[in-house]
Amino acid sequence: MPQVPQEILDALTRVDMPTVSNIHEASETIDVDGLKIPVHSCECLVLGSGAAGLRAAVEAKRAGVDVVVASMSLYGGTSACSGSDKQTLHTAGTSNNGDNFKKLAHDIGSGGCMDQDTAYIEAIGSLGAFAGLQYLGLPLPQDRFGAVLRYQTDHDEVGRATSCGPRTSRLMVKVLAEEAVRLNIPFLRKCEGIEILKDKSADGERIAGVLLIDREQEANEYGLSIMLATCVVLATGGPGELYRDSVYPKHCYGSLGMAVEAGVEVCNLTESQFGIGTRRTEFPWNLSGTYVQVLPYIYSTDDEGNEYNFLADYYRTTQELVSNVFRKGYQWPFHATRMADYNSSLVDLAIFIESQKGRTVLMDFNRNPLAVPDDQEFSLDRLDDDVATYLKNNEALQELPIQRLDRMNPLAIELYKMHGHDLRTDPLPFNVSNQHMNGGIAVDSWNHSSLNGCYAVGEVAGTHGVTRPGGAALNAGQVGGMRCAQHIAQVDRSNAPTISAVEAQIKHAVTYVKQLADNAEGHDVAAVRDEIQARMSDKAGFICMIDDVPDALAAAQQLRSAVLEKSFSINKSNRVADAFRWRHLSLVSEAVLMAMDHYIKQGGGSRGARAYCSANGTVAPQARSCDLSAYSYVEEKDEHKSHKLVLQFDGDSFSINEAAIRDHEDPAIIFFEKNWSHYLTGGIYNDDFKHQ
Ligand SMILES: Cc1cc2nc3c(=O)[nH]c(=O)nc-3n(C[C@H](O)[C@H](O)[C@H](O)COP(=O)(O)OP(=O)(O)OC[C@H]3O[C@@H](n4cnc5c(N)ncnc54)[C@H](O)[C@@H]3O)c2cc1C
């Protein structure tokens, strides 16, 4: 294997982003209770400039739509700032003989609760999504035949992932932003959506735009601005601030709560991903793939500096211990059932228990794992077959983990170095954190939500089921972006919304904003944040004690009511966005707990990345030398895989219902002559349409 020169590594880790200078101009300024508020308008507003939003924007623009991108932080969010390093796709190279769309769709949705048409659409769409990125210059690795290099990842038995290194999603944002600049798409670069504007006078309720806080305009002290738009694409990423223990970058608030507040239907909120990563207080990053496949020594320390080889209390032999650490490379998300039978999620449980003791858990790349007492020392000659084969195939049988990492993935070392941590010298503290929201805004097969004209793509869309293969999030965002743009391009956009349709809502919001300053009774933002984040991490994390959920839900409901009633006390006009963010997240927190409570009451059990533990649990994980009976968990029932829990807020309380997942007709009944006309006449854009 040739040594990769430093400048190539630098180009893949230190990714400079293009400058965006086409700023959208307001068409008028209105006066609301003495505040001058700029009003913008366009056919389609894309809210958020992550990989999903930018894809939607460039595809819509190419299709002739007048599109504007408004983003809280142009290169903020998960795609640009976190370690999204892989995308799942249909490739010629998969299994060395290509892939099968139906099989890929099956695997995407195999955890249950995922609409089957969406899974098939993501499978088919992965081809175009991927080709478009290659066309824009994304440096995806190939062999000399042009087949994309691929590897095995989470929930993937075939090897469908590919990667441009740890900054894959940032590179995606870069090439898409360059294309947006080339297409001259206008932007609002520091502009946060705070309320969905609705036109209730129209023929049925529909979206009319979004109320924004734009930090680049000075017409009023708060930055309040209005965007009127016929279509709005919410592409604001996941609610990363919901949990204290979170591996999202900072300031990921998203717009899920804003959508909930507007009465938009949301689904599958019970489903999230949790896994090992470095902490948000330092540099949030997933420790998957080669980080664990090089077999670092994992240990903990207490306040006195004592060191514990704690995994040795859980696994029975050194070989079993290290082989399960290795498997976290492609079984990265915690999975309840893998706690049993000494499988790889027992590592996460062990880390959880260690953290509960107040200890710090670390990964050391300069030491090989220590032995399980009374068993043999670690040796590269004593590994499970899959582990030994992988290391041998990658010529990574060097003596120390850091040398193996240098051999297999030097970018992994480079990246931490860039963030001030030298893996060659210092052990890395880490824990198990919340990483992804699988649920979100309920959408149809064109990413259209329950609110007419409002679309959702990327992580804010609730398109994933209980599990998702690694890389499926980025793929879903790309495919969703393409699909919604195609749909918007054929919508009648001639009837632009008017300011009069949303006047009352704007007046109400202005009153709310103005009151924040003299609201002595109002809540403190930091206190509300701490309460929500602690409750979510402690009561709704990957280890969930069933008996705790009803009280957690009651407390979340109480907080949300109190926040709606008394609002916040905020004295600085440039901080008013906080009131909206935490009002919205108080709703999201209640919605997640409500969905969990409902699921538990229906007899729901452990699935995906959450173990529901109880004295009535039917499976007790076992360990070599400690008692794990407190973590006995309730098992999932198959019947729960076939529906999504859909929630809707009516301004006062949530309703919840179980909606059957959508299936789809067998593609074998679709033929060119029979079905061309449905494309030409637009029949395919009607979500109720089925091929006969
Ligand atoms: C550590 C980590 C590793 C991951 N690894 C992978 C991986 O390997 N493969 C994979 O497929 N997925 C991975 N994921 C998940 C994946 O990165 C995200 O799901 C995906 O990047 C989300 O893209 P997005 O465009 O929907 O949102 P984001 O990239 O988060 O972008 C959201 C955008 O919206 C803006 N925004 C937010 N709120 C508002 C608002 N109210 N108004 C206006 N703008 C707003 C933000 O500033 C940002 O520009 C990972 C996630 C994490 C945290």
Could you characterize what this model shows?
By secondary structure, this protein is α+β, with helices and mostly antiparallel strands. The mean pLDDT is 94. The strands form 5 sheets. Strands 1, 2, 3, 6, 7, 8, 9 and 18 form an 8-stranded mixed beta sheet that branches. Among the domains are: 275-434, no CATH class; 515-660, Methane Monooxygenase Hydroxylase, Chain G, domain 1, CATH 1.20.58.100. β2 (35-47), α2 and β3 form a beta-alpha-beta unit. α16 (525-539) runs parallel beside α18 (577-601). The protein has 19 helices and 22 strands. Flavin-adenine dinucleotide is lined by residues 47-53, 70-73, 76-79, 82-87, 169, 192-193, 235-238, 247-248, 252-255, 277, 284-286, 435-436, 458-459, 470-474, 477. Flavin-adenine dinucleotide (FAD) is lined by residues 47-53, 70-73, 76-79, 82-87, 169, 192-193, 235-238, 247-248, 252-255, 277, 284-286, 435-436, 458-459, 470-474, 477.
Structure in a nutshell:
The protein is an alpha+beta fold and 692 residues long.
Bound molecules: flavin-adenine dinucleotide
Low-confidence stretches: none
Gross morphology is globular
Strand portion: 15-25%
Look at the structure and give the mean pLDDT: 94
Main pleated sheet: 8 strands, mixed
Q: How many extended strands?
A: 22
Helix-strand makeup class: alpha+beta
Q: Tell me the helix content.
A: 25-40%
Number of helices: 19
Radius of gyration: 25 Å
Distance between the first and last residues' Cα:
53 Å
